[in-house]
Design goal:
- With 128 residues, the protein is an all-beta fold.
- The protein contains no helices and nine strands.
- The chain has a single domain, classed as ApaG domain (Immunoglobulin-like, Sandwich), CATH 2.60.40.1470.
- The strands form two sheets. Strands 4, 5, 6, 8 and 9 form a five-stranded antiparallel sheet that branches. The chain has a four-stranded antiparallel sheet with strand order 1-2-3-7, with no helix packed on it.
- Pfam families: DUF525.
- Residues 3-128 form the ApaG domain.
Length: 128
């Protein structure tokens, strides 16, 4: 598990290899990740959008931007947390992801970025 705190918001990521799949006549490696967002600040915040940079050792890097996370824009009061799961397919058994969440602080009405630390996506058989 990797974790990082930005402006009192802690992001923790746990990853798992889910197996191999064939898609468009090519093998793909499936990974899941669980992200926990914890509000350690004194203000209520809301996650509004996400930005991902996906690195695949056999493919070009991919950038993904979107609203919320898995269709939600969670509001976190001080001391609250939100956990969600998602996943991605890679062309190789080894890659990584990093990114950030755009958030708004309800007290100051200012937006800010909360960084997601780089987390590795690796099939167990790919490491020695």
């Amino acid at each position: 598990m990797v974790s990082q705190i930005t402006r009192g918001i802690k992001i923790s990521v746990l990853t798992s290899f889910e197996g191999t799949y064939f898609k468009n006549y090519k093998i793909h490696f499936a990974f899941s990740y669980e992200i926990t967002i914890e509000n350690h600040s004194k203000d209520s915040v809301q996650l509004t959008s996400r930005h991902w940079e996906i690195f695949d050792s056999l493919n070009d890097d991919e950038i993904v931007d979107g609203e919320g996370v898995i269709g939600k824009k969670p509001v976190l009061k001080p001391g609250e947390q939100h956990t969600y799961s998602s996943g991605c397919l890679l062309a190789s058994p080894y890659g990584a992801m990093k990114g950030y969440f755009n958030m708004i602080n309800f007290t100051t009405t200012k937006t800010f970025k909360v960084f997601v630390p780089t987390f590795r996506l690796s099939a167990p058989f790919a490491l020695n």
